[in-house]
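Re: that chain you flagged

S.,

Sorry for the slow reply, it's been a week of failed gels. I finally had a moment to sit down with the sequence you sent. For the record, here it is as I used it:
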Amino acid sequence: QRVSVFSFVFFLVKGSAFAAALWLSNMVSIADLGLFEYALSGGLILAVILNLGLQGAYPFFIIREKKESYRAIFFFHGLLVSGLILGLIFLNKITGYWIPIKFSLMGIMASVIGMQVLYSTILKSHEVLIPAILLDGGIFILINIYNILIYLGVLSFSFETLETGLMIYMMVLWGIYFLS
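Prediction finished late last night. Pasting the structure tokens below so you have them in one place:
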């Protein structure tokens, strides 16, 4: 039964990642889709740089080398980097976007993806698999929830709304981070 629950969650998350941009492409202009894809692609690349390879170092130092005292470094790094980016984006938002939205959206996406990858690796290292898989695709699940709200007419598409949703999700990730 555990395998079937894991498989269901795995395919749900991976399907969500596949469907997010495809579904959005049917509801926005080509220019908006291009800007979204630009921000997402840039965010994915930037997340790798921001994480500094810590997602690979965690299993090595904590699991293999048994250096439990290093654990705080991983948590602090995730919070520091994402906190700085979130603060900058919040400041940008309240001062009228002196940083273009494509870059601020890229920054929050990088921050969210980086935090997800780092925390997901920590969970996988301790064999907490289903929450780890949900975290792997959390940004895509959020984008699909946004897609549903657009489709139902509850929201209309705007980069500012998407950015705000991602900022809220970042704070939820912090809450999960602090509770663990």
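What I noticed first: The first helix runs from residue 2 to 25.

Talk soon,
D.
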